[in-house]
Structure formats: C-alpha cells, structure tokens
Design brief:
By secondary structure, the protein is mainly α. It is 84% helix and 0% strand. The termini are far apart.
Length: 213
C-alpha cells in the first residue's frame, strides 16, 4: 500500500499525466506523417523501379545515423523542442514503411494481375484496386516497426526540450531519483507494449483478410 501511495505521489508531483499527453501527441503526429510519407515513397519507388536502388540506399544510410546524433544534427536546422523530435521520428520510420510497401506491391502474384488485366483494368486501376489492397499486410508490418522506432525517439526528445515522458526520465537520472526513473520508465515501456500490441492486432486482421506474401 505504501509503495502504491509512493508511486502515485511521484506521478502527481511530476505531472506525468500531462507529460503522457505531450508524449502521445508527438508520437501520433510523427507516426501519421511517417505512414503518409513512407507509403508514398514506397509507391513512388515501385512506379519508378530504376530509382528504388538509390532511393533505398539513401534511406539505409539515414537509418545508420544514431538517433541521438540525428536529433543534435537537426537542431541547427529546425531548432529545439518538439519539431526536431517529430522530424527525427519521421526520418527513422520512413524506411521500414517504404520498404514493406514496395515489397508488398512487387510481391503480388502474376495470377491476380492477370485476372485484373483480363477484366480490362488499367495499370493505375490494378495498382489501386489489386496491388495496394493485397500489400496492406506487409505495409502494416512496416508500420509496426515504425511504432517502436517512434516511441523510442520521442522519449529521447526530452533531452532537447521536446517535453513528453523523456523529461521526467532525464530529471530522475540527473537528480538520482530512483522512484521517478522507475515510474516513468515502466510507463514508457507499457505504452510501447500497448502500441505494438495494437499495431500487431491490425497486422493480423489484414493478414487474415488478404493473406501473407
């Protein structure tokens, strides 16, 4: 009982409810933009296949930059706070979504394409009505990876004044407050597991409906 009261006291003293709202706000914006950009890049590289090699190579190079270093590099360009944190999340999350989108579009079987063409569908209609729906399970798998990336980078954003749950974690580490580190760290872990679980449910539903390539 005392432990629960102590943890509740820490939660209230550092206003972790408000920090959670900030955290999830940045997470939601970054993930939404990442999905739009990642799917668009995947479709673009599928339509212009000759660009897929250089395009994915560039995204791979970007992915090798450590997340903390990327945050620091973005500060001179977009300042400090939430903006560089969201931008870093997007840059990290585009690759898995784009790669899975491209793989899903190219992995559609010739039988399905043949049936669509026999029905008189144009190339654009085949893309919109056959390739994209059938690639959704793989796209969802890329988004699930992006969820994990985004949650991690948003937490690091506390180092550059972005707010969110990274702030109480840094406060607990710098001031040696074990209770705060425990509560904030566990809560970030719970949010990550819940987010991954939701993404996993969506992925499994799409696999049951469209199959897995």
């Amino acid at each position: 009982m005392d432990a629960a009261a102590s943890l509740l006291s820490v939660w209230q003293a550092y206003d972790l409810t408000a920090r959670t709202v900030e955290h999830l706000g940045m997470f939601a914006v970054a993930l939404a933009v990442s999905i739009v950009v990642g799917v668009a890049v995947g479709v673009l590289l599928f339509r212009y296949e000759r660009l897929s090699g250089p395009g994915f190579a560039a995204l791979n190079v970007l992915e090798t930059v450590p997340d903390l270093a990327l945050l620091v590099l973005l500060i001179p360009l977009v300042g400090i706070g939430a903006v560089p944190t969201v931008v870093a999340c997007i840059l990290y999350s585009v690759l898995p979504i784009a790669r899975n989108t491209h793989a899903g579009l190219t992995g559609v079987g010739p039988d399905e394409i043949g049936v669509a063409e026999a029905l008189g569908l144009t190339e654009r209609e085949v893309l919109l009505h056959v390739r994209i729906p059938l690639s959704l399970p793989l796209v969802a798998g890329g988004i699930r990876i992006a969820v994990v990336f985004t949650m991690g980078v948003v937490t690091l954003g506390g180092l550059i004044g972005a707010g969110g749950l990274g702030v109480p974690l840094q406060t607990g580490i710098f001031n040696n407050i074990p209770e705060l580190i425990l509560v904030a760290g566990l809560w970030v872990g719970v949010l990550a597991v819940l987010s991954d679980g939701i993404a996993g449910c969506v992925e499994r539903r799409l696999e049951r409906r469209y199959g897995r390539w």
